[in-house]
Predict the structure.
Amino acid sequence: MVKVLIAGGAGYIGSTIASACCDAGIIPVILDSLVTGRREFTAGRPFYHGDIADGPLVDRLFAEHPDIDAAIHCAGLVVVPDSVAAPVRYYRENISKSLEFVAHLLRNGCGRLIFSSSAAIYKASEDLTVDEDSAIDPRSPYARSKATCEAMFADVAAAEPLRVLSLRYFNPIGADPRMRTGLQFRRPTNALGRMIQARSDDVPFLITGTDWPTRDGSGIRDYVHVWDLAVAHVAALTRLDALPEPVTVVNLGTGTGTTVRELLDMFNRVADRPVAAREAGRRPGDTAGAYTRIDRAVRLLGWSPRYDIKEGIRHSLQWAAIRDDLLPELC
Ligand SMILES: NC(=O)c1ccc[n+]([C@@H]2O[C@H](COP(=O)([O-])OP(=O)(O)OC[C@H]3O[C@@H](n4cnc5c(N)ncnc54)[C@H](O)[C@@H]3O)[C@@H](O)[C@H]2O)c1
């Protein structure tokens, strides 16, 4: 393995994957429109500024890097409530453009694809745990766009020389432990990001949804360190050809569920200044959440997470303290 194309490689997760690739001796070639990504995250890496649906650009990228032999597709729009408010935009960006992208890959002879999918597609189960065989029931345009892409890629793989591994991420937290990259938004919508924001604004953290069927009524999530996610992609690149099926789904989580109230408790133990909580209603498109069994990731990828939640919180706080200096003009 010499080079890998990372679409969305200027974003939070894609840039961390790119760093893990560099550390493993794999050269990441980044394709990103910078709609939410940051040019700073591409420093020192071959970078193509543009859209995944732009055929001539993808052709040029492959002409200039003919030794790329796999693609990781992290490009897309990712905010659930925004997808509820703007479904046409989300379906166009996440589904139509992904279809174009896979056609561009095939035309350029790239038949290995790792796709960033999401735990958001699962149907809620009684005990709040899921595995890859659990039923899916996407509840927002965002989640439906992920489920649709998975199905679309499987159809393409049945007819074309394509192997696809869809990695269903649970809830990424943390930053690159070496602080090269982290979450680029000043006002992130995920729970930990909102806690950090509440701490710096000196306002209470809003627990959105307190009537979910969980042990304390707040949503439950499986918080996985973004560096662990990134390392799983490196493992996947080396194992893709050995997977028994041409189309595979693997969940990436820790195997442990943590409620929002529990996360806040841990946050207040790690942070130098505690954050108060205030209860609020559910946000559109939210679900109770779930956590995953990770047997398949262990068996097929030889991967299991190394960092715990406290380390994720610590790295997120460390990143938030340097972010504004590294990334001027934040959105
Ligand atoms: N962050 C999460 O909680 C989470 C959870 C599960 C799955 N995922 C998936 O992981 C992937 C990465 O998410 P992230 O959190 O890093 O988000 P992000 O917004 O930081 O990264 C997405 C990147 O894709 C780029 N992009 C978007 N549309 C593009 C297009 N049409 N052409 C080229 N580039 C484009 C953006 O500029 C950005 O750099 C997404 O596909 C997302 O659905 C994220």
User: Anything to note?
Assistant: The chain has a mean pLDDT of 95.
